[in-house]
Structures are given as structure tokens and as C-alpha cells.
UniProtKB/TrEMBL annotation:
GO MF term (any one): ATP binding
Sequence intervals crossing the membrane: 20-43, 89-117, 170-188, 194-211, 282-300
ABC transmembrane type-1 domain sequence ranges: 22-336
Residue ranges of every copy of the ABC transporter domain listed in the record: 370-603
Coiled coil: none
Taxonomy, superkingdom: Bacteria
PROSITE patterns according to UniProt: ABC_TM1F (PS50929), ABC_TRANSPORTER_1 (PS00211), ABC_TRANSPORTER_2 (PS50893)
Cell location: Cell membrane
GO cellular component: plasma membrane
Keywords: ATP-binding, Membrane, Nucleotide-binding, Transmembrane, Transmembrane helix, Transport
Protein name as annotated: ABC transporter ATP-binding protein
Topology term for the membrane: Multi-pass membrane protein
Keyword Nucleotide-binding part of the UniProt annotation: yes
Organism: Euzebyella marina
Length: 608
């Protein structure tokens, strides 16, 4: 029940739909019983003429209510029909049809309003989960598979909708339907009712097995589901870029617009499906009405058929099969719902270890430099950085080189605060980055990674990710600085060309130049380049390197380099081994020392 209570809080904004559902379910349960009970006095008049009541009965108290109602209806039918029994038959059929019509009308209204509650909760849980997915740090996803997270936001949330929220209907509708029906059934025949209690579970199981059918599929709903799944997958794949460019709200808006469309499409689809059941039942009872008329004619006119008082009773017995079957499934549904809710709430209730302090300050400029002071950091058990110290003055380019696993990329992750240091501090203009807001910190940073992370959108929108109000002229200027304008102009629709999933319509060099253009347009004072040219061929590397050099002019840059030829002009080159600095200096100074750096340069020269 704890999970149920936690999930139920999402239903509060839609409580009015819940109350309307309960109200119409009560009417449905009442008319469900009355629609069959109304047959009893009418059949007495039709098939037992000697039971006709010619004097209007007098109400003698609640204890005699059943007899009074039965006699009163008999009296009205007798008065209306007079000497023509067919007139009474028409009245019987008309009243039964009206009662069944009202029953199914209230059934549809109850399901109509619960649809808005169910799909509203579905939409809000998904939006809340997506918001949480974006907020959680990169480290959270080193332990979680993307597919698992996507399954939680799709199938698990759907399971919650089908199980927990279905119980809301069971609580009122099914028990009342059974209660009203059984009361009337006991009034007709206690012995027959006891027999029915043995028969119903068997019949319910058979009907449940035979009546299983697949839900109708809707192309629009499926396409929209694919759309927001795509956004979730891109979010998880490009989370560093989204965070670095403060684009969380942009992607949240994209996702919430998609779920809003899914909400609208699902309401239309489910309301049509909901209409199918009451319509089908009413059409079925319409056929019964015709059979009643025909059978009644055989009794009253042709006198070839014996009257049978169990007709109404059969209808009542059938009337409790569906709710009994639904209640029998409820416990299984609750167990499945509990498992799904646990998985969903695990995401929603995960604490974000990298969050802004209550008194975190906003910083809007970069004046002096970045300091890494006695920084130690580990991903799991073993330290990747140990007592690491580094100063990056404003306007300087500092290159980090070393073998794989030496801690180069870790420094970039710590400066951008994708991870927090275990010991020591990172300061920007004297402010510890833990004391400033993540948004203001990342607004001062530009990030270009080894893997060019692009999104299934136009060239212009990819470049403008960090500056949504950028003009077309600013986008073109950024592309020119990144040596990208020429190839963009040759695309089918220029800057408005969609580049496909992860930018797969472009080459590696083209994708990397778009990433650089994106960083240029953001125009941050600090650039973090994480092996931005290591995956490129020689020609692409030349173009990208030229773009990087233009971008780094008058900026503070931290360059993580794999190819040493690309960082020879850096103000300071820091050589790392196992998380510690072993050499530091300019390119020429390090070559003169004849140490680790010179060996690295010699190894790459031989490899080339």
C-alpha cells in the first residue's frame, strides 16, 4: 500500500475526474441491477395474467417496499395495456431498453472521466521521471543501462496505469454492482442464488479465457511513443552536452510537448475503445428485446410457449460475472503494480549527490583563473587523481597529456562538475565550484568531446543548442569560425537540413566541426577540449585543428590531447602518469628535459 499511496499523489491534480468516475460508477451499479430486476414484475404481468393488479397499491413501509414496487409496476402495466396485451409487451420492452441504455450511458461516462485521470497520471509521472533523469549526475548512469531506464519510463509506468489505477474503479464499481445484484437475486430465490455462487467462478474463468483479445493498436499513439523514447535515448546519450550547455529545460520542453500529444491521442483512442463495450452490450440487449417480443408473442398470442420466471434471474446472474472476474484479477494486478512502482520510484526518489547548495551563488564572469587544490578523486575504490594541483590562469591554454587511464578526462569531468571531488577543491576566481550554481558554472564553460554528440534536428538547431535566441547571422558566423560553413552550404537545405539520429548523415570531421561551432556560438570564456581530434583522419584533423585554434583565441582553454602535434603551442603542457603530474612546461622546455614527454613524442613520430 505504501507504493500505492506514493503513486496516488500524482492523481491529485485530476481528482475531479476521480469523483466524477465514482459518481457515475454508483449510478452504473444501481442501473445494472435495476435493468434486470425490472423484468420480474413485468414478466409476471405478461406470462401470468392472473397476477395482474387492477387496484393501485398502497405504500405500507420500508419492509414491504419490494412487494409495493412490484405491485405498483404491475398496476401501471395493467392500466396501460388494458385489453391489448401487446401494448403491455411494448411497454415492457421499452422500459427494459431505457434502463439498459441508462446503465451503459453511465458506464461510458465513468470510463470517460477515469481516462483523463489515468492518462494524466501517466503523463505527469513520465514528465517527472524525465526531469529526474536529466537532473541526476553522469555517475548515476555508469551503473544503469539506458535500456533499463527507458523501460522504467515506458512499460513500468504503463503497468502502474493498468494495475494501480484500475483498482480505483474496482473499489467502487464492481463491489456495488455485485452487492445490488445479489440483494435482488436473494429476493427472487435464495436456493438458486446459492447455486449461482458455485457456478459463477467456473463461468467467469471460461469467459475470461474465451474473451481475451488484443487491444486495438493506434498508429498515432505508437509513433508518438517512439518519439519520446527517441528523446529519452538522445538525452541519456548526450547528457554531458545538455548539461554543459544548460539545455535541460529545452529538452524537457521537447519531451513534455511529446507526452502532451501522447496524452491527447491516448484519450481519443481509449475513449473510443471504452465506447465499444457499452455499445456492444446495449446492442446485445437490443437483440434480447427483440427475442422477448417474439417469445412474448408466442406466450400471449399463440400460447405455444410456457412462461419462465427465470429469464430475469439469468440476466442478473450474468450481470455479476464481469465484476467477479475483475476482482479475481485485482490481487495479481496489485503485485505486478507493486513491482513496477518500486522501479519507477527508485528513479524518482534517488537523491542527486551533485546538487546546488541552498546558498549557492551565481557567477556571471571569469576574471582570474581556475585552481585545482590537492584534488583526489576515485570512481570506485582506486584513486584516479591523488593530491593533484594545477593552476590555469585566465587566457592561458593548458594541455593535459599522458597514457590512457592517467586521469586526463577525469579532470575535465571534475571542472564541469559532472562529478564532485572526494578530497580537495576546485576554485574558479576563488569560488569553490561546489559553492556556485551548476547552471552559472556551466554557462562559463564550452565543451567539445572526442565523440561528437549531435541530435536528430537541423544543423542550425544543433549549433544553437547553448544559445536558443541566436540569430541566423550569429549561427553562420560561428560555423565559419569552425570551418563548417562551406559543407553546410552544400547540404540539401543548408542550415535547415536535418542531420539524422546522432548526426549520422555527416562525416566524423563534419560532426566535430558542428560541435566546435556550437561551442563557439555559446562564446564561453573557458573551453574544455576532450581529445577533440583523436578520432579524425589527417584532412579532417587539419580543418578541425584550424577551427580549434581560431576558437581558442583570447580564451582560457584546457585541452586533453591524444595527438601531441596538436598542442605544441600550448602555454603549459602537463604530463600525467597514474593521476599525478610528472612533468610540466612548454613544448620546447619538455623536449630539452629528455623525460616522459619526449618519449611520448618519439613514440607518436614512429607510429606516424
Amino acid at each position: 500500500m505504501d507504493y500505492f499511496k506514493k503513486i496516488l499523489r500524482f492523481a491529485k491534480p485530476y481528482s475531479k475526474y476521480g469523483y466524477l468516475n465514482i459518481f457515475f460508477n454508483i449510478l452504473y451499479a444501481l442501473f445494472s441491477a435495476l435493468s434486470f430486476a425490472a423484468l420480474i414484475p413485468m414478466l409476471d404481468v405478461l406470462f401470468k395474467p392472473e397476477n395482474k393488479v387492477t387496484v393501485e397499491p398502497v405504500y405500507e413501509g420500508f419492509g414491504q417496499l419490494k412487494d409495493y414496487l412490484q405491485d405498483y409496476i404491475n398496476y401501471r402495466v395493467t392500466v396501460y395495456s388494458g385489453d391489448d396485451e401487446m401494448k403491455g409487451l411494448v411497454l415492457v420492452i421499452g422500459l427494459v431498453l431505457v434502463l439498459f441504455l441508462l446503465k451503459n450511458f453511465f458506464n461510458y461516462l465513468a470510463m470517460y472521466f477515469i481516462t483523463f485521470l489515468r492518462n494524466g497520471v501517466l503523463k505527469d509521472i513520465r514528465n517527472k521521471m524525465y526531469q529526474k533523469i536529466v537532473e541526476l549526475p553522469v555517475s548515476f548512469y555508469s551503473e544503469k543501462r539506458k535500456g533499463d531506464v527507458i523501460a522504467r519510463i515506458t512499460s513500468d509506468v504503463l503497468e502502474i496505469q493498468h494495475s494501480f489505477l484500475s483498482i480505483l474503479e474496482l473499489i467502487v464499481r464492481e463491489p456495488l454492482t455485485i452487492l445490488f445484484t445479489i440483494l435482488i437475486m436473494f429476493g427472487i430465490s435464495t436456493k438458486l442464488t446459492l447455486f449461482v455462487f458455485i457456478f459463477i467462478p467456473i463461468a467467469g474463468a471460461i469467459i475470461s479465457r474465451i474473451g481475451k483479445s488484443l487491444k486495438k493498436k493506434s498508429d498515432r499513439v505508437q509513433r508518438e511513443q517512439g518519439e519520446f523514447l527517441s528523446i529519452v535515448e538522445e538525452t541519456l546519450g548526450g547528457l554531458r552536452v545538455i548539461k554543459a550547455f544548460n539545455a535541460e529545460s529545452h529538452f524537457y520542453q521537447l519531451f513534455s510537448r511529446s507526452t502532451k500529444r501522447f496524452f491527447r491521442f491516448s484519450n481519443t483512442l481509449l475513449n473510443r475503445q471504452n465506447l465499444a463495450s457499452p455499445t456492444g452490450e446495449f446492442l446485445g440487449i437490443l437483440v434480447i428485446g427483440v427475442l422477448l417480443w417474439f417469445g412474448g408473442r408466442m406466450v400471449l398470442v399463440e400460447e405455444t410457449l410456457d412462461p419462465s420466471s427465470f429469464i430475469a434471474y439469468m440476466g442478473l446472474a450474468y450481470n455479476i460475472l464481469t465484476p467477479a472476474k475483475a476482482i479475481s484479477k485485482a490481487s495479481y494486478g496489485v503485485k505486478k503494480g507493486n513491482a513496477a512502482a518500486e522501479r519507477v520510484l527508485e528513479i524518482l526518489e534517488t537523491e542527486n549527490p551533485i546538487s546546488d547548495k541552498p546558498n549557492a551563488v551565481e557567477i556571471s564572469s571569469f576574471e582570474r583563473g581556475i585552481e585545482l587544490q590537492n584534488v583526489s578523486f576515485k570512481y570506485e575504490d582506486e584513486y584516479v587523481l591523488k593530491n593533484f594541483n594545477l593552476s590555469v590562469p585566465k587566457g592561458h591554454t593548458v594541455a593535459l597529456v599522458g597514457q590512457s587511464g592517467s586521469g586526463k578526462s577525469t579532470i575535465a569531468n571534475l571542472i564541469t562538475r559532472f562529478y564532485d571531488v572526494n578530497e580537495g577543491a576546485i576554485a574558479l576566481d576563488g569560488h569553490s565550484i561546489k559553492d556556485v550554481t551548476k547552471s552559472s558554472l556551466r554557462s562559463l564553460l564550452g565543451l567539445v568531446t572526442q565523440d561528437s554528440i549531435l541530435f536528430n534536428d537541423t544543423v542550425a538547431n544543433n549549433i544553437a543548442l547553448g544559445k536558443k535566441d541566436a540569430s541566423e547571422a550569429e549561427i553562420i558566423e560561428a560555423a565559419k569560425i569552425a570551418n563548417a560553413h562551406e559543407f553546410i552550404s552544400e547540404l540539401p537545405e543548408g542550415y535547415h537540413t536535418n542531420i539524422g539520429d546522432s548526426g549520422n548523415k555527416l562525416s566524423g570531421g563534419q560532426k566535430q566541426r558542428l560541435s566546435i561551432a556550437r561551442a563557439v556560438l555559446k562564446n564561453p570564456p573557458i573551453m574544455v577540449l576532450d581529445e577533440a581530434t583523436s578520432a579524425l583522419d589527417t584532412e579532417s584533423e587539419r580543418l578541425v585543428q584550424d577551427a580549434l585554434e581560431k576558437m581558442m583565441l583570447n580564451r582560457t582553454s584546457i585541452v586533453i590531447a591524444h595527438r601531441l602535434s596538436t598542442i605544441q603551442n600550448a602555454d603549459t603542457i602537463v604530463v600525467l602518469q597514474k593521476g599525478e603530474i610528472v612533468e610540466k612546461g612548454t613544448h620546447s622546455e619538455l623536449l630539452e628535459r629528455d623525460g616522459v614527454y619526449k618519449k611520448l613524442v618519439a613514440m607518436q613520430s614512429l607510429a606516424n
